[in-house]
Amino acid sequence: MRQPGTMELTGRERSRLVAFVRFVWEFVPYLEYVPFIWPYRFKCTESSKPLMTVTKKLGLHTWYVLEILAPDIDRRLAIAHTLALDALGVD
Prior knowledge:
Elements: E1 10-13, H1 16-25, E2 41-46, E3 49-57, E4 63-68, H2 75-87
Antiparallel strand pairs: 1-2, 2-3, 3-4
């Protein structure tokens, strides 16, 4: 994720195990019709320093916790990034 005039953020799943299971889940036949219910937790970093986190919570409704740790990150960009994760179906 890049914002003009500031740093470039790299987002990754916080848990390698969850990232691996999600990766394998997409290749197992017929599991594409079953939602991956494990919540995701992404950490966006710059030079291994955490600057933003996005967590999807379990529940009947979709809940997100967006934590912006750097004051110079545009809130609109962070919110758009969170919505893009949901729209792209990272679950």
